[in-house]
């Protein structure tokens, strides 16, 4: 499969999963900072102009973080990432979707790209503060969910940890937000995993 990512973007979570499961993939960088996602060559691959995206071995395109992660957990990652019962799968998707749809798209988008939410310079700090409040509230709830367990769903790694990894890469490494102690310790543990180190190294983040 071909995996399209931008260094340090949300695709880092999929990169981490691909490395965790030892998938056979070709990583192709699309540099958002250079506007590569809007260039003709990439629009032909993914008309949404977003990363992550995967071209599977049958040539079909798969987009959206949760969908790619879910597909990996049912295919090449099934030994390591199988959900368990249907109820387990629902709870994993509930956490993952909160991270992608709320923490990333509502919170970090405002914190990191406030100009997307207002054309007025004077509003930007207010937009950032709103984004920060969404992120801080979410990680307080996620801290209560995590407790002192090794992974966000309990004893076993799941695809929800991949979404935790990239959102915390932004919250801890990039922005140094004041987040609950157990959340920061969990992120530091995830970051020490060989798969996380490899994904960050391949993205030039180490
Ligand atoms: N809903 C998409 C969101 C993906 C997304 O927003 N990706 C960002 C990088 S973190 C992107 O490609 N941004 C490029 C742009 O907005 O031009 C998903 O779940 O994969």
TrEMBL record:
Residues 1-80 form the GST N-terminal domain. Residues 85-206 form the GST C-terminal domain. Signal peptide: none annotated. Pfam families: GST_C_2, GST_N_2. This is Glutathione S-transferase. It comes from Pannonibacter phragmitetus. The lineage of its organism: Bacteria, Pseudomonadati, Pseudomonadota, Alphaproteobacteria, Hyphomicrobiales.
């Amino acid at each position: 499969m071909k995996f399209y990512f931008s260094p340090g973007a949300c695709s880092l979570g999929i990169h981490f999963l691909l490395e965790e499961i030892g998938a056979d993939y070709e990583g192709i960088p699309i540099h958002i900072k250079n506007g590569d996602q809007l260039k003709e060559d990439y629009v032909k691959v993914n008309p949404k102009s977003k990363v992550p995206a995967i071209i599977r071995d049958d040539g079909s395109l798969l987009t959206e973080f949760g969908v790619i992660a879910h597909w990996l957990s049912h295919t090449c990652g099934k030994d390591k990432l199988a959900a368990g019962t249907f109820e387990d799968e629902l709870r994993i998707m509930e956490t993952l979707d909160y991270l992608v749809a709320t923490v990333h798209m509502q919170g970090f988008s405002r914190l990191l790209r406030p100009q997307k939410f207002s054309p007025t310079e004077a509003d930007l700090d207010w937009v950032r503060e709103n984004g920060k409040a969404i992120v801080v509230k979410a990680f307080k709830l996620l801290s209560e969910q995590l407790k002192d367990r090794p992974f966000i769903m309990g004893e076993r790694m799941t695809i929800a940890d991949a979404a935790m990894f990239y959102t915390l890469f932004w919250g801890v490494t990039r922005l140094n937000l004041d987040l609950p102690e157990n959340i920061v310790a969990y992120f530091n543990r995830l970051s020490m995993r060989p798969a996380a180190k490899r994904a960050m190294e391949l993205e030039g983040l180490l």
